[in-house]
Write a structure and sequence with these properties.
six-stranded parallel β-sheet; 10 helices; seven-stranded mixed β-sheet; globular; 26% strand; alpha/beta; binds NADP nicotinamide-adenine-dinucleotide phosphate
């Protein structure tokens, strides 16, 4: 059996161009005692892959040149030499951009799909993505009924959930997204109160109109100019959950910081950066809540499934072009029940 693997061949400067990742084929390695061989069914494409490709200081080691590109996967155990995993088990793993991987049982989480829940939801709503929205919005943002919440990347994987969690908290929610269609999606299907198209509208001016009392909670997926627009419109004691900075991931060289940083002082505001893996021990507590809200129709969710491991690097740029429609996932194999 052969294993197709995408290897980090060089570090990107700017966008992820062809040649950054290289495809190779190697024989599948068999598990040693204490290991299992998994077959990746779905590959999660996340903006943070661009961070991992670079060698800037970051929250975990960068992927080394020559290594298989790191990524979360949903996989099926095909061979096992550990009593904790059996062939046929479904797991969430850091399986990487490849068909097969060797794992240790403590490094994976077992998935027991509930009848009627599509498997890909365990890559989105019921995964690190749902947990990111949950902990960032509810534990850091702490929206109160009637307060105003702003979410950037509002039509995306994390942002779409964060905004709906704010609605569940009875807050008023303004989404910021990059097209009229995405704005229509968040105010229509997702029930946000308003949306701003940051590519065509003056975000700071629109926020002055839409949130005259100021923004109490900002769930920041982007940083950049959108963050500055929100900083100009903070309410007293505002909270900013700093989830991501996608506006700067492809930047080369130094990236300017926020121009309205001083407003954090004037408004006695708080910014807290967070990384969802720090909350991993609590995922089990959160997933049933997300599943229940989904079942009640309070949390809607889209997964953008694209075919073929061979196309994975090209799909990754969709996250930076805004071409993904919800959580971006690559289907590597349809070889599962
Ligand atoms: N802290 C954590 O643990 C954690 C975990 C997961 C994700 N994140 C972060 O959360 C953010 C969203 O991730 P996701 O997985 O949910 O991706 P996503 O929102 O589904 O996809 C990325 C979206 O970002 C928007 N975007 C791209 N370039 C932009 C720019 N220059 N300015 C403004 N918006 C831009 C695009 O939407 P538009 O069409 O609206 O521009 C694109 O669809 C990312 O910053 C990611 O790094 C953090």
């Amino acid at each position: 059996m052969l294993n197709r693997q995408w290897i980090l061949a060089r570090r990107p400067t700017g966008r992820i161009e062809p040649g950054v990742l290289e495809l190779r084929q190697v024989p599948v390695s068999l598990p040693d005692e204490g290991q299992a061989l998994i077959q990746n069914l779905y590959l999660s494409l996340d903006p943070t892959h661009r961070i991992w490709m670079s060698d800037m200081p970051q929250y975990m080691p960068p992927v080394a040149l020559g290594e298989v590109m790191r990524a979360g996967t949903l996989a099926r155990v095909v061979q096992s030499r550990t009593p904790e995993l059996a062939p046929g088990d479904l797991v969430s793993a850091q399986g990487g951009y490849q068909d097969y991987a060797l794992v240790q049982p403590q490094a994976v989480s077992r998935i027991n799909p509930v009848a009627g829940t599509p498997l890909v939801h365990y890559m989105g709503l019921l995964s690190h993505i749902g947990a990111t929205a949950y902990f960032g919005l509810l534990e850091i943002g702490q929206p109160q009924p009637g307060q105003t919440v702003v979410v950037s990347g509002a039509a995306g994987a994390v942002g779409s959930i964060a905004g709906q969690l704010a609605k569940i908290s009875q807050a008023r929610v303004i989404g910021i997204a990059g097209s009229a269609a995405k704005c229509g999606y968040v105010t229509g299907e997702l029930g946000f109160d308003a949306a701003i198209d940051y590519r065509r509208e003056d975000v700071a001016a629109r926020l002055r109109t839409l949130a005259p009392q100021g923004v109490d909670v900002y769930f920041d997926n982007t940083g950049g100019d959108i963050l500055d627009a929100v900083l100009q419109n903070l309410a007293l004691n505002a909270r900013i959950a700093l989830c991501g900075l996608i506006a700067s991931y492809n930047a080369q060289g130094e990236w300017a910081g926020p121009r309205y940083y001083r407003n954090l002082l004037m408004k006695r505001a708080m910014v807290k950066g967070f990384i969802v893996s720090d909350y991993r021990a609590r995922f089990g507590e959160v997933m049933p809540k997300l599943a229940a809200w989904h079942a009640q129709g309070l949390l809607k969710y889209r997964v953008d499934v694209q075919p073929g491991l061979e196309n994975a690097p090209a799909y990754l740029n969709r996250l930076f072009d805004g071409d993904n429609q919800g959580k971006l996932v690559v289907q590597i194999s349809n070889d599962h029940p």
